[in-house]
Amino acid sequence: MNNISFLRKPIAYKFYNATIGLIIINFIMFLFNYINPYVLGYLALTPILVIRRMFVWQIFTYMFIHANFTHIFLNMLALFIFGVPLERKLGSTEFLVFYFTVGIGAGLFTLIFNWYSGMALIPVVGASGAIYGLLLAYAALFPDSVLFIFGILPLRAPIAVLLFAGLEIFFQLTNLQTGIAHLTHLAGIAFAYFYFLIRYRINAIKVFFKK
Fold first, then answer.
1. Rg (CA), the chain
2. Which of 102, 108, 131, 171 lies at a C-alpha separation of 20 to 30 Å from 93?
3. Phi and psi of 155, rounded to 5°?
């Protein structure tokens, strides 16, 4: 009970544009990696390096490394769209705790799954796990908001979450879209769901289907 109370302990509300800071850091890291590609080997999440050489920081740093400009542009666009309103709602420190908890959780899941599924040599990069967690958080706190998918298809935020989750499951099972860590994305959604359930007592599924 004390552990649950500790996990639910509120953090004083402060706002200091953490979302913009994250975006700037990500682009700086992208340029640094572009100038020095060897950075990828040290900061990407590669299970064999984490397990055999104790590169444990990779569970955190993989979130700041992206494969190409399209990858970072789409992730940072999503971070801006969902991160700004979430940060204003939760407060900057609370937002950062959520963002990194989900991102690290998704990284740990990826580490374990890839290690035991024979993909220990494959590096994983990108903030997508945390970004998918932000999408679920946004839908849970702003369930009546409407997102325009591809700029043209209007969907309520909860429907968009379910759609993206379904697509990730589909691509994971069919292997039609390779080179993308679909399970990392799904893990981000899962960790965000349990974070909200434990810390805020908000069941996102009930919120999604309340109407």
1. 17
2. 108
3. -140, 140
Q: Looking at per-residue confidence, does 162 or 32 come out higher?
A: 32
DSSP characters over 52-119: HS--TTHHHHGGG--SSHHHHHHHHHHHHHHHHHHHHHH-HHHHHHHHHHHHHHHHHHHHHHHHHTT-
First to last CA, the chain: 32
Tell me the whole-structure pTM to 2 decimals. Answer: 0.91
Closest among 208, 92, 102, 100 to 155, alpha carbons compared: 208
**Whole-number Å distance between alpha carbons of 18 and 24:** 10
Q: What is the mean pLDDT of residues 168-175?
A: 76
pLDDT category of residue 147 using cuts at 50, 70 and 90? confident
Domain boundaries, the chain: 2-208
Q: For the domain 2-208, what is the CATH code? A: 1.20.1540.10
